[in-house]
Write a structure and sequence with these properties.
Number of domains: 3
CATH class of the largest domain: Alpha Beta
Number of helices: 10
CATH superfamily of the largest domain: Homing endonucleases
Radius of gyration: 23 Å
CATH topology of the largest domain: Endonuclease I-creI
Largest sheet: 4 strands, antiparallel
Structural class: alpha+beta
CATH architecture of the largest domain: Roll
Strand order of the largest sheet: 1-2-4-3
Distance between the termini: 52 Å
Number of strands: 10
Order of helices and strands: HHHHEEHEEHHHEEHEEEEH
């Protein structure tokens, strides 16, 4: 096709070529229609490769780009978990033509990890993603390779980049809050919810979203200051916190609203 076209455009061309062929158009007719719609010239051989499944612009990416990522409750939940305890990473020594970028979660709560896996599978259109228990970290772990989700959720987290998926509808907002609370929240004996995070701006955004559901919260306030020595019993080590940790406090009377 001459100059290498952007993946998003190639996806559109591919989908149109398949649809036009199903309508009975000849290769010449498909070439003419694609040129009329997009001003892009494709060859008969390229159409043949696409229709026979020899080549595909998807290249193993079930969601090939952010442009084709659709808002959903499951995606909002995944985002909520990721901005909490979830993680993304890219392998330093990647093999050419392979993504080697991952999104994952490690946690002791098996049900939490399995819910994250279920939502991930729904987002990237996979039948099932299995979690596993890792003895070396003493936690359940789920990871999946997805360049599109990595591009969306990589650090530094950009709230402006996420809002179209989080604030798509009321149910998406609720799913995002549930994912974040599952990831960063804890409940004391009196029924109060505390949410901890080092990103003060993120916690302020969480407060704004909670107000949409008439959920009262206070904060964010300093919970642990930068430089504080923390004991890690799992690794048997001590380390110094390099960022202030902030706390959001949700009233006990609002807890049922958040759970619902």
């Amino acid at each position: 096709m001459g100059k290498y076209l952007p993946r998003e455009l190639r996806i559109k061309l591919y989908n149109d070529v398949v649809a036009l062929r199903r309508r009975g158009l000849t290769y010449r007719g498909i070439i003419g229609e694609v040129w009329r719609r997009y001003g892009a010239r494709i060859s008969k051989s390229h159409i043949s490769y696409w229709l026979r499944g020899i080549h595909s612009p998807y290249n193993g990416r079930l969601i090939p780009s952010l442009e084709l990522l659709k808002p959903s409750e499951e995606l909002a939940y995944v985002i909520g978990v990721k901005v909490g305890d979830g993680y993304t990473y890219r392998r330093k020594h990647a093999i050419k033509c392979y993504n080697h970028v991952w999104i994952g979660l490690k946690a002791k709560d098996r049900e939490f990890v399995e819910e994250f896996a279920r939502c991930l599978a729904k987002v990237i259109v996979r039948r099932q993603i299995r979690s596993r228990f890792r003895d070396d970290v003493g936690k359940y772990v789920v990871e999946v390779e997805s360049k599109t989700l990595y591009e969306l959720l990589r650090k530094p987290i950009g709230l402006d980049r996420l809002k179209k998926y989080v604030e798509h509808c009321e149910r998406c907002v609720a799913a995002f809050l549930r994912g974040f609370a599952d990831s960063e929240g804890s409940v004391n004996k009196r029924g109060y919810i505390f949410i901890l995070n080092t990103d003060q701006r993120l916690l302020t955004y969480i407060m704004d979203l909670l107000r949409r559901f008439n959920i009262e919260s206070r904060g964010p306030r300093i919970h642990v200051r930068r430089g504080t020595i923390i004991n890690d019993p799992e690794r048997g080590k001590k380390y110094s916190r390099n960022k202030d940790c902030h706390r959001l406090h949700i009233r006990a009377s609002s807890n049922m609203c958040l759970v619902a």
